[in-house]
């Protein structure tokens, strides 16, 4: 084919396209509809064979159309919130391990960077975070209880160690808690006393009085004197077998011993 006829052909095709736009578009549409799988297969093959070329082209396009793409993206995200959330959820569900591994790796390699960023974010968003945290806690109470339970179960040694090293702090916290939650603490005590009184078929008031007279009688039997150091100051009646484990022995006179407050604390490992 001569150059001239090639040029001629090109011109003819251009002319043809121009004059038959609608017809061609219609034909394309029909063809695409009827050959979906074939086209998809072809696209896939094409992508596979032209990865680098496509990546370069995409990069160039992104670079030259940043603002346009950003606006478009924002608009799309705004209009397709639910769709995106569903998609994300699905993706997360199907790629959990992959994502977790990736995140872990990223955290490990960017610890300092993340710490600085986190600190800065926290500083600038304190109020927002406080509100959000409170909101989350409120909506996930059951989850938190479950989580705490699981944590305590899995970290028994750690918790014991913490209790041992922070006795004063915990005692102070307990005192403050009882002070601020009088009703709750009262309810708790009633529940506990009721439970302890059950072996004697007593309600909590009856049991409380029985316990008081038990305590008085134990002290009388010990001549109102600490059995350990002979002090006569601040005397308590101590249950040799703890009453929460042996409620049926809690009013047994042989299960009581008189101790001063100091010695009593020692027995309970509080000092
Ligand atoms: Zn005691
Ligand atoms: Zn004593």
Task: Record the SSE blueprint.
Layout: H1 3-19, H2 21-34, H3 36-49, H4 51-64, H5 66-79, H6 81-94, H7 96-109, H8 111-124, H9 126-139, H10 141-154, H11 156-165, H12 167-180, H13 182-197, H14 204-221, E1 235-239, E2 256-260, H15 261-267
Antiparallel strand pairs: 1-2
The protein binds zinc ion (2 copies).
One zinc ion binds at residues 226, 228-229, 231, 259-260, 262-263.
The portion of residues forming beta strands comes to under 5%
Low-confidence stretches: none
For the CA atoms, what is the radius of gyration? 39 Å
Q: What kind of oligomer do you see?
A: single chain
State the helix count: 15
Which ions, cofactors or small ligands are bound in this entry?
Answer: zinc ion
For the largest beta-sheet, the strand count, sense and barrel status come to: 2 strands, antiparallel
Number of strands: 2
Q: Whole-number average pLDDT?
A: 88
Spell the H/E element sequence: HHHHHHHHHHHHHHEEH
The helical percent reads over 70%
Mass-distribution shape: rod-shaped
What gap, in angstroms, lies between the N and C termini? 106 Å
Structural class: mainly alpha
User: Order of strands across the biggest sheet?
Assistant: 1-2
């Amino acid at each position: 084919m001569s150059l001239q006829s090639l040029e001629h052909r090109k011109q003819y095709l251009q002319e043809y396209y121009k004059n038959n736009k609608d017809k061609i578009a219609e034909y394309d549409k029909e063809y695409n509809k009827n050959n979906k799988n074939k086209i998809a297969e072809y696209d896939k093959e094409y992508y596979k064979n032209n990865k680098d070329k496509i990546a370069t082209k995409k990069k160039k396009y992104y670079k030259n159309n940043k603002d346009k793409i950003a606006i478009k993206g924002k608009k799309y995200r705004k209009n397709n919130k639910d769709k995106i959330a569903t998609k994300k959820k699905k993706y997360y569900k199907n790629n959990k391990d992959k994502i977790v591994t990736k995140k872990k790796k990223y955290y490990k390699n960017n610890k300092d960077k993340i710490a600085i960023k986190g600190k800065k974010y926290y500083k600038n968003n304190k109020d927002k975070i406080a509100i959000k945290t409170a909101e989350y806690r409120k909506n996930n109470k059951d989850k938190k209880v479950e989580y705490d339970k699981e944590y305590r179960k899995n970290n028994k040694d750690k918790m014991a160690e913490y209790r041992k090293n922070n006795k004063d702090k915990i005692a102070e916290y307990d005192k403050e808690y009882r002070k601020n939650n009088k009703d709750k603490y009262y309810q708790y005590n009633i529940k506990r006393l009721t439970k302890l009184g059950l072996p004697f078929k007593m309600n909590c008031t009856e049991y409380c009085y029985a316990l008081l007279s038990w305590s008085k009688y134990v002290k009388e039997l010990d001549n109102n004197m600490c059995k350990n150091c002979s002090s006569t100051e601040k005397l308590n009646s101590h249950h040799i077998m703890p009453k929460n484990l042996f409620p049926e022995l809690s009013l047994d006179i042989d299960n009581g011993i008189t101790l001063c407050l100091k010695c009593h604390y020692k027995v309970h490992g509080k000092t």
